[in-house]
Design a protein that fits this description.
430 residues, alpha/beta, 7-stranded mixed beta sheet, globular, disordered N terminus
């Protein structure tokens, strides 16, 4: 009875939640890696056919799934600071002629967000993805799931398993700290495997960019509501409140306060953070190097080089996991690199599309009776094919795929790297 009640709750959401999650392009889908899940619109992929030819069969799948929507982590301090500023200005707010978009402040704003934890919408995302995955690959199964040891990731794996397998499945969830691998392709960094890997590079980039756009919003809000004394930290808190209210409740009064271009600047801040934390702007080519662990594991499995490959791998990790892998593959890479001093509206590296909450990176190996010779490989990232441009002229322009042999040859950078070899140690400071 309890399980039925949970499933009933997860299968029904308010209309405004459906609006947010089902639109093709909505500004509320563009908060970088703290965006709600939505079908991606990848750069240069509009002409890619998402359907395999009728004579093709998917023989093997490797899923890397990010955890679902969660509460804030470090960002909650900005939201709490905003709430305190509003509380201190209660009398001013009550006497003010509030514009429509700020009228909600009359009755006060409080946050009920739970830091770190998976939200109920995060649970629904994973349950739904499990059901969809079972429908897409009814001929594939497994009896083991591998997960990061983070609580929200393990819970995400459980909700996915409920959707994929149903009740009481004969499946084990194993965490990376219970495996014998010398380095995990799910959580290769940060940590002792690469001591130089540091998220602070990303924080510095966001500080630089925030000085370009936050003062303008702060001045605008203080003009709309004089006497409250909004600071740039308060504005940051309001932006985070918009994103995390959305992740927790499906709606936020703060989202209507900001102009589309202001939200675009916030999205760019989140992209700069992730690019410099775990992708192309990380110094010394560190992200591509660490991402080779994932690429090599993918190649090992799809080529069955150890003779023990399984048809299906269900694995759960973080946005960092996916971005490191993409970095090793050279996908979604901008030239010139992103700059913290200039907005790049046409950029390829857009984490709203690459790693929203509940991001799903699906690698398929497929074979065909006549359309293609030998095993082929393609990448479906958030329900949309991302072209494997690393294959160069060997990439099929219709499917964005390439032959497995071409893919392996194209990834010689990854296959030449081994954990704690000379290059790894020099780059990571081991």
């Amino acid at each position: 009875m309890r399980v039925q009640a949970i499933l009933s709750l997860l299968s029904s959401t308010a209309p405004y939640v459906q609006d947010y999650f089902n639109v093709t392009h909505n500004v509320l889908n563009h908060f970088g890696s703290i965006s709600p899940y939505h079908r991606a619109r990848h750069h240069d992929a509009s002409e890619i056919n998402s359907e395999l030819p009728i004579d093709c069969t998917v023989d093997q799948v490797m899923l890397m799934h990010r955890h679902g929507s969660r509460g804030p982590i470090g960002e909650h301090r900005y939201i709490e600071r905003l709430i305190q500023t509003l509380h201190n200005a209660t009398n001013v707010i009550q006497k003010a002629e509030l514009p429509h978009e700020l009228e909600f402040l009359r009755t006060g704003y409080n946050s009920s967000l739970t830091p770190h934890n998976l939200t109920i919408l995060g649970r629904k995302e994973l349950f739904d993805h499990g059901v969809e995955f079972a429908l897409n690959y009814p001929h594939l199964t497994t009896n083991v799931i591998l997960s990061s040891d983070s609580g929200r990731v393990v819970e995400s794996a459980r909700w996915f398993a409920l959707g994929f397998f149903g009740l009481d499945p004969d499946v084990r969830i194993v965490t990376v700290n219970n495996t014998d691998d010398p380095v995990s392709w799910i959580t290769p960094a940060p940590g002792p495997a690469c001591p130089k890997f540091n998220y602070n590079f990303g924080r510095q980039a966001t500080l630089t960019w925030s000085k370009h756009y936050l003062p303008v919003i702060t001045d605008r809000l203080n003009t709309l509501l004089p006497g409250v004394g909004f600071t740039e930290d308060d504005v940051h808190g309001a932006l985070f409140a918009c994103a995390y209210d959305l992740a927790s409740h499906g709606a936020s009064p703060w989202c209507g306060v900001f102009l589309p271009e202001e939200l675009a600047n916030f999205e760019y801040e989140r992209d700069l953070l992730m690019d410099a934390s775990c992708a192309y702007a990380l110094p010394d080519n560190m992200a591509p190097l660490v991402g080779t662990v994932f690429v090599n594991k993918l190649i090992e499995r799809f080529t069955d080089s150890k003779g023990d490959s399984r048809p299906l791998y269900l694995e759960f990790g973080h946005d960092v996991t996916i971005l490191l892998a993409l970095s090793a593959l050279g996908l979604a890479k901008d030239n010139p690199p992103l700059s913290p001093d200039e907005l790049r509206p046409g950029r390829k590296f857009r984490t709203s599309e690459l790693t929203p909450f509940a991001a799903s990176m699906v690698w398929e190996k497929f074979t065909c009776t006549s359309s293609y010779d030998g095993p082929q490989i393609r990448l479906i990232l958030n329900d949309a094919t991302i072209p494997l441009t690393i294959c160069g002229q060997g990439m099929d322009p219709t499917l964005g795929s390439c032959s497995l042999d071409t893919f392996v040859s194209a990834n010689h950078y990854s296959t030449d790297i081994r954990f704690r070899d000379k290059t790894w140690n020099a780059t990571c400071g081991v």
